Each structure stands twice: as structure tokens, then as C-alpha cells.
Amino acid sequence: MMVPVDGFMYPNEVELAWSVLIVVYPYVTGLVAGAFILASLERIFHVTAVKPTYRLALLTALAFLLVAPMPLQLHLGHPERALEMYLTPNRGSAMAMFGFVYVWYLMAVLLLEIWLDFRREIVLLSQSTTGWKRLFYRALTLGSSNISEGALRVDDKVGWVITLIGIPSAFLLHGYVGFIFGSVKANPWWSTPLMPVVFIFSAMVSGIALVMLVYMAMMKIRRQPIDMRCVDTVAQYLLYTFIIDFALEMLDLIHRVYEADESFRSLDFMLHTRLFFSQVILQVVLGTVVPILTIGLIQIFNVPEKLRRLAYTVCGCLTLVGIFAMRWNVVIGGQLFSKSFLGYTTYKVDLISREGELIAAALLILPFLILAVLMKILPPWVEGEAARGA
Amino acid sequence: MQVSKFKDAGHLVRLAIAFAVVFLVFLLIRAHFIPKSFGQYGHYRGDALAELSSKPVSYAGHQACEDCHGNVVSMKTGGKHTGVNCEACHGTLAKHVDNPALVTPQLPDTALLCPSCHEANIAKPKNFPQVMSARHSGGAVCKSCHQPHSPLLQPGGEQS
Amino acid sequence: MITRRKLLMLLPAAALAWEYVLAGTPESAPGYNRNQHWWGMLLDIDKCIGCGSCVRACANENDVPEGYFRTWVERYHVSDWRQEVPQVDSPNGGKNGFPPSEAQGGKNFFVPKMCNHCVDSPCTQVCPVGATFHTPDSVVLVDDTYCLGCRYCIQACPYGCRFLHPIRRTAQKCTLCYHRITRGLTTACCENCPTGARQLADLKNPNDPIHEFLKTHSVQVLKPHLATGAKAFYHDLDGSVR
Lengths: 390, 160, 242
Fold this sequence. Notes:
The structure holds 3 protein chains of 3 kinds. Chain A is mainly alpha-helical. Chain A has helices at 21-43, 54-67, 69-75, 84-87, 94-128, 131-141, 149-182, 194-221, 228-259, 264-272, 276-300, 305-331, 333-336, 357-377, and strands at residues 6-7, 343-344. Chain C is α+β, with helices and mostly antiparallel strands. Chain C has a single domain, classed as Alpha-Beta Plaits (2-Layer Sandwich), CATH 3.30.70.20. In chain C, 24% of the residues lie in helices and 19% in strands. Chain C has 7 helices and 11 strands. In chain C, strand 5 (132-134) and strand 6 form a beta hairpin. The radius of gyration of chain C is 18 Å and the shape is globular. The two termini of chain C are 28 Å apart. Residues 20-27 of chain C have low confidence and may be disordered. At the B-C interface, helix 3, helix 4 and helix 7 of B face helix 1, helix 2, strand 2, strand 4 and strand 5 of C.
């Protein structure tokens, strides 16, 4: 099984250690963080226009957060030893600490916020349904059926605090992933203090785009009119975040080109050859420049609604592909060149294997299935109310 | 006012209790599953040191050979191969040292063995004796002229 | 070079250690105090002939799977003054020696590579569970029954000395033959090196001749700008070596 190597690589470097699953993982956690930030826009910053997406954003974040550990488990040489990260975590290891950040975010932020926001519906459903559904909702109520004005006010206050804590928690959730890469001094493609920041902003971009697409899709499926004021505002926030994200990435690039340290020659060559399509074409041009220009033009010119919806759909899809390409370029790109700066290897993805393309695709589709189930259990929309949140 | 406030927060109390229970279960799992020797010398399983020290050896080390093969030692002494340890040519010999009568090592084929060090290569140190084996001996195997344990030939071709 | 006097000194210790090896005792040799040793290695570029004996010896001693390397040898060709772009090759890690060079002129030499057993190793820093660690005698080891195969250490090592064992699915690397050095033997690679290009060093032993060599000769480590505290010391390492 000879892997084509150009130039010289240390013998143990030829085979990539981190596969496409380690591309899927930051992509998924990024979507979680981004979706949550969008939800917090309404809750904390009172951007009322995006309220229709609030509950949807939370459920989307949960669906993706539940899938997030799966690529990691599949990737481990010994998944049965995964618990060790919680038993004997090495406090100096970003990966170990991330295990706790994940649990914190799942339990203390996301689940709590969803529970508090949906509690009224949960209690009502526990009284109106029968059979095992009734048991399920009763369990979710934790035995309390108090949905009085006072109780709901308490929920609202506590929920507000949770969301407030949730914003830095979301930054921590995905910033840590960036730090896992950014703190590796052995790898100059990864090692930069900008890495956590770039990861966070690209996460926000992908998360916002995702919720925007899911919202428009759900409205189409439910045959409800799309609240254009909402979608226009979401697209605006997508644009602002994109500009910051693009600026950060360009800063990294310009810095590298200008300083031209020892790694530059090797990385530059890699970018022009092996990573050209995924970085220049997919990530930068199609995934960043086109959406920025499109949404930017929409801010300047009066574009009819139908065309705007089409533009948002296309831009949303391009963004999601572009951010996936960004994760690919970081993770895979960082392993394609030799740490001797004298050679390059090739990444051969299998189709059918524990870390293959099929599994990666399945892991990206699974959150949507989970989201569908979540939307059935905890409906984001009250029937009869057209395109409005709770 | 105070009482009704507490009444309205009852579900939060239940939630806090649920969290506390989960946390307690986690602590119990930790106490049970963390290996006993963990942390003995540092942030790792202390028993690992003993386990890693106790693996069996494959190379006996030249000292073990010299205990029995004194004649070879005297042949090597002062010669060019003094510093070349026995197993570098003869392979792993721990099993032979363990049971000399039962485990007989195979003699290496000098035609293959000697060039692995002495085949001429531009990257070898200039003062290292190297030959182009294809041209060097006219087809004769190395052993036919050189005694491997003291390989230097005197001028005139006699064994030193 | 190992002198006869040194051999006579080692004889009783080695014989005693050997007794224990034969007896199959799980502990290291009696009298081995981990706190009295601080292990390193000297790699003398002037002496390396690229025979690959060390690579073969390591594979034999440690059951290293084919295609993966706990140690390997690189061949360098530096044609001119520019140091950043040498021509390097390492066919099968140098395990079967090297074919004749196509290079003409310039500087040509062999460089053995291995785990540097860094004092401030980035690999032990990133291990999430404490499966790889730095021993009291300054050897970096992997606890094979605890490693969960996340490969973070493999990414963090600047020298490319780690790999994932294809069958055991845990991280593996040079152990400095810990099972040998704790019994008074030297490492398999040092034992089999015919020219003395590889020599084990005990940096806490005032009488260790290699320690003395390090104090009196010009030596270098790989990638010093990363401040890993590497303890594989190279004598006469050219600036082109990556």
C-alpha cells in the first residue's frame, strides 16, 4: 500500500494520523457554537427580528452537539478507554480539558436552556398525551408541574443568565478546538495564536448559515411563509461575521507571506498544489468571497424577495461547504507536509472503513435526523401560529 | 412573597438535586475505575514502570558472549573489529545464552553481511574502509581472505 | 569506545542483572535506582556509516512492525552553501542500508534519528490521559495498556518519532530500551552499532565517558528553537539537518 510521497518525509509521517473524522468533529462543534450564538442574539442582545429562529437554533445546536463525540469515538484506537479522559485527565492537555468543556456546555448550558424554554410545553404535553409518551414527558418535567406566571418568570430570568453564561461557554467550546491545533508548536500550519479566534468566527459563520437554511427549509416543508425580516437580519449577521472571519484569515496569510519563515516555502508549495482546490477555490472564493459579495450587494441594492431567498439559500450552502473545506485545510493540510519541510504525502480516504468517507457523510447527515426527532418531541412552533416562535 | 417565590422555583431545586446525583455517581465511578497505582510517580500509572522494565530481552549483550567465547575475544582484541559487538553480525542471541546446547545460532553469510557495512557509498566517512564489492574480490566471498573477527590483512595478503 | 577496564567494572553488575533476566523477575535489576540515572544518547555523525544495523536491531528487540520506525537513518546530500534545501532520502528507514548515491560531490552524510526523550517533551504535555509520561530517570515512555490511541502525541512530536501501532492501535515510539538499560545493558541500537556512532549516556553519572564527551565537544540537538529539552545529542551535525 504505497502512498505517493514527493520529496522527503520522516518515515512515520507518511501515513496521516488524523483522518477525515477529525475534520468532521470541529465542523460539528463549530455548528453548535454558531447556532447558539445566533440564539443568544435574540435573548441577550434583543435582536427581536431573529426571534423566529430562536428555538430552532437551540434544537439544532443540541442535535449537532449529540453527534459531536461520535467521530472522536470512531477515531480512537481504543474507544473503550475513552472514559479515561474523565478519570485521569491531564490538566496540561487541551484535549482532556475539552472533555469537561463539552460536558459543561451540554449539561449546564444547552440542555438547561432548552429545558427552561420548553418547560411549559413539556408540562402541558405530560398532561395531554397518553401511554409511553406521557411517561416520557413526565420524566422530563422532573415531577414538577408548576407552570404558573411566577414559575415561568423564574424560568425566564434563569434562562437569561444561562444564555449569558452560554456565550462565553460557546466560545470556549469551539475556541478550545482551535487551541488544540493552535498550541502544537511542532506544526507551523497549526501553531498560531489566531487559530482559536479563526475557529470561533468561522464556527459562527457556519452556525448562522445552518440555522438560516434550516429555518427556510422548515418553513417550506410546513408550507408557512418565510419571515423575510428575520431572514434578512440573519443574513446581515452572517455578513458581519464573515467580514471579521475573512479579515482574520487574510491577516494570517499576509503575516505568513511577509515573514516567510522556514516553513513558508513548504507551506506555500502545498497551498499551490495539494490544497489549491480545497483552499483557494472552495474555502476562499466560493465559500467566503462569493457569499460576502452577494449578501453585501443585497445590503446596497434593492433585491426582490424571491431573488433574495434564492441568494440566501445558495450562499448558505456555499458557506457550509466553504467552512467544511476550511476544517479540511487545517486538519488534513497540516499533515500533508513534512515537519522536515522537505516533502509532501497524500491523503488516501477509504470509502468503506471505520474512518472512511461513508462514515463521515453519515455523521454529517445524522444530526438532521436527530433534529427531526427533537422537533417532534419539542415542537419549536405552536400549531396555528404562522412562522412565529413560542 | 418569599414563600411563593420558593414555590415557583421548586422545579429548579429538583434539577439541582438531579445534577448532584449525577455528579455523585461520577465520583463513585472515578473512585472505582482509576488504577490504584496512578499518580505514584507522576501523572501516569506507576505500575507501568515495572511492566516496561520487565519485558524480555532479545539481544544478550556482548558481555554474555564473552563469558564463554574467550577465544574469539582474544582474536578480536587489538583488531579492527574490536568494537563490533557479537550480535551485530550474529543476530539476537539471548535464547542461545539461555540454553547454549539447544539453541545453535546460524553463521551469517559473509557475502551478504560484510557489504552491508563495507559497500562503498559517498555518504560514508572518508576514513571508513569501504570497497565496491562487485570489483573487489573477483567473485570470492569475503571470508576466503578476511577473518571476520580480525579482518585486516597484512601487506602481501596474510591474515594479521 | 568501551575500554577493557570498563568491561571489568560492568562484569559483576551485568552478570547479576543477567541472573535476574534468566529468572524472569518482573522487576528491574536489584540496585537500579531510578533517581540515580538521567538517560540520553550521543549520535556521532562522523562515525555513522548508514549500515542500518541499529534499525534492524531495534525492530528485532522491540517487535517493531514493518513500515514503522522507532529509529531510522537518513542520508543527506548538501550540494552548496544553501542549507535549507538538502536532498534527503531514507529508503525503508535505512533498515536495509542505502543504495549507491546518485549524488556527485557536495557534503554527504548519514543521520540516525530517534526519540529525543525530551525533558520538556511536547508529547507528554498533550496526552489527555497520562498514557505517555516522563520517568524519574528521564525516559519518555508509553503505557500501552492505558493509551487510547487519540494520536495527539504523534501530532505534537516535532521529530516524527512516534507512530500508531497498526495492530495494537496505541501510540508507540523508542523506549530507549528501558527493559535493557534498567538491567545494566545498553540499548539494542547501541549494542549493534559497529562503529560506536550511537552511545548511551547517563547524564547523572559523573564517570560516564559519554557525559564527559558532551561536556568537552561541540554537540547539537535537533530543532533547538522549539526548546524541547532534547537529549539526543549530535556530534558534528550539519546545519542542513532537519
